[in-house]
Structure formats: structure tokens, C-alpha cells
Amino acid sequence: MGGIDVRMMAEIREAPEVVARQAEALASPLAAIVNRLNARPPQVVVTCARGSSAHAAGFGKHLIERYLGIPVAAAAPSVATVYRRSLRLQDQLVIAVSQSGRSDDLVELTSTARAAGAVTVGIVNAEDSPLARTCEIVLPMGAGPEHSVAATKTVIASMAALLRLVAAWSAEAGLMHGLERLPDRLAQATDLDWSATLPGLRGATSLVTLGRGPTLAIAREASLKLKETSNLHAEAFSGAEFLHGPVTLVSTRYPILLFMPNDAAAEGLRSLAADLRGKEAALFVAEPGEAAAGRLPALSPDQAEADALCLLQSFYGMAVRLAQVRGLDVDRPRHLKKVTRTR
Questions:
Q1: How far apart are CA 122 and CA 107, in angstroms?
Q2: Is the residue at 330 inside a domain?
Q3: Which tens digit of pLDDT belongs to each residue from 319-331?
Q4: Which of 235, 239, 249, 256 has the largest count of CB atoms under 10 Å?
Q5: Rounded to whole angstroms, how far apart are CA atoms 253 and 86?
Q6: Which of 143, 161, 188 is the last residue of a domain?
Q7: How many Å apart are CA 173 and CA 82, to the nearest integer?
Q8: How far, rounded to the nearest angstrom, does the alpha carbon of residue 210 sit from its chain's CA centroid?
């Protein structure tokens, strides 16, 4: 992906160093929150986020449910902001994720949760933001300024912070080791060439992104980025959910971008991919292996959740190139601004 001179691409390339810096920056707050959670484990975790941050929170849901067995639910901020209802969250964990920390609904929901006795953790890039001040414990993303309207390095940073939280909380050695290798692998993933997608997506009006397990949140984030940067309608599904109706959309003119996980969830998606090829779908699969038609290069398997972040990093580079071949300014998506404040 060398030679692309746009702000978004520059920020994509900063992500590996951001993740590397987190190890030291998050050590103290992670120790504090893990001690708190181990002393009084929550029965449920509630996440609070919008946009790309909601996809990061979805990645956290997968991590917490898989490695800790605690159910995770996404909050509806309107319960606090519109309906003025406080949730019963005494001693439960609330994780708010936001780049800017300035969306009023996230701040208000988190404030009411803390007042109700929840343990509130904020994953934010702006450490002086209202959301950071509202939360009991802050895990700073440490991404530095992000000027491109479409978030990239802050998404990688927030997902990596959640990966660090769950690794510390679960004491899962595989997660810890995957995190050690993640910065270097992100750097390698940045330069993987996904340009094989460009002819098929250049003139597309709609497509599907698919994932499962650790890559479901990646598929959802990819769907949003295609909307933001290429004005391309994209809809994300789990591979299982896709079979419950949306599979009827499959045709040679309806591209599908599948993010293959490197864990037990891969078996079902490989079967789905074979079925889609049999239906002559315009299918692109991001997975390790020898070069083949429709296969997008991916790093060799390492740790499944860290590998999912590497797929997202490779996708971001492709998104920049796709916007360019579609004649769009990736740094100035229409109708959008960097900070969106909702209530």
C-alpha cells in the first residue's frame, strides 16, 4: 500500500506503534481494574458506544464471553437520555468506548450507571473529555491526534485495549503472547495487497461483509468504512445469520467480502464460502493460504483475536484505494464530521 498520500493512510500506518505503546501506558490502569473485578466479579457487562466504537465494543463482547464466560449486552443510551430511566447495574461492569469522549448520550448513560453502583471503565482517546471524567477508571487508547474523519487507528487502538483488558482479567497466556507480537504483525498486515477487490468493487452499488467469532466485529467495521469512504452500501452479517434469509441476495453482481477467523469459527465459514462459490457469488475471502482467485492475502495464523485485528488493518488500506478508484476524497466523506454528538 505504499505511495498513497492521504491523511487516512498515514494514520493507518501509525496504528502498529500506537498498539506497541499501549503495553506500558495501560499497565497501571489495567492492574487497578482487574483487581477490582477479581475482588467482586460482575455477573454481566454492559457496553456503551456509537459508530466504529460500537464495533470495537462488539469485539470486546466476543472476548469477554469467550474467555470469561460473562454475558455482554450493548446499552441503549436513550433509556437514560430520552426515557430518563436508570438501569439496575449495582456491582456490574460498564465499558464505554469513544474516540472523542464527547457524545452526550454516552456520557449520560455512563453517569447514571456509575450513580447506580456500576464499575465504569472508559476506553477513550481524549483523556480530558467529559466521558473520561465520568468514568471511574480510564484506559487511554493513546492513539494521538486523528484528523481523518473516518476513524482507523483509534479503532485498532480501542480493540487492542479491550484485548489487553481481557488478557489481564482472564490471565489467558495465548492472548498475552498474541499481544506481544501484534505490533509487528500489524505493520506486516498494512502492506498486504488487497487490490484484487478493486475491479469487482469499483462499480458496485451494494455488497455484504461476513465474519464470525473474532471477525464478526471486523466485518461490521468494514461495512461502516465502505459506507463512509466509498459511498458504498454494505451490510454486515455473521456467517450463520446470513443463511437465515439474506443468502437469497447472492448473485454474480453482489460482491461478498468474507473475513475468515483463525479459530473454531472457521469451519462453518469455509463451508459457507464453498456454498457461495457454488452459487457463483462474487466472493472475496481474506485468509492465509496460497494465492488463488478470490483469496485476499492474510498473515499466517498466530492468535485468533489478534489475527482479526490484522485483517482489519489490511482492509483499511484497501478501503483507501477503493475510494480513490471510485473518485472520492477519502479524507472528506460527505455529510460527516469528525465528532458526532447525539443525545
A1: 10
A2: no
A3: 999 999 999 887 7
A4: 239
A5: 47
A6: 188
A7: 43
A8: 14
Q: Structure pTM?
A: 0.94
Residue 44 placed within a domain: yes
- Tens digits of per-residue pLDDT, 255-297? 999 999 999 999 999 999 999 999 989 999 999 998 888 999 9
Distance CA 150, CA 312 (A): 14
Structural domain boundaries, residue 248: 195-325
Residue 76's CATH number: 3.40.50.10490
Is there a single domain that holds both residue 240 and residue 172? no
Is the residue at 112 inside a domain?
yes
342: confidence class by pLDDT, cuts 50, 70, 90:
low
Same domain, 123 and 258: no
Domains: count for the chain: 2
Residue 73 contacts residue 311 (beta carbons within 8 Å): no
Q: How far apart are CA 267 and CA 114, in angstroms?
A: 41
pLDDT per residue as tens digits for the range 102-133: 999 999 999 999 999 999 999 999 999 999 99
CA separation for the pair 156, 126 (Å, rounded): 15
Return the pLDDT at 2: 46
Mean pLDDT of all residues in the chain? 93
Residue 301 lies in a domain: yes
144 and 13 fall within a common domain: yes
Residues 49, 55: Cα–Cα separation, whole Å: 8
- C-beta of residue 98 within 8 angstroms of C-beta of residue 53: yes
Q: Are residues 181 and 219 in the same domain?
A: no
H or E stretch covering 19: helix 7-25
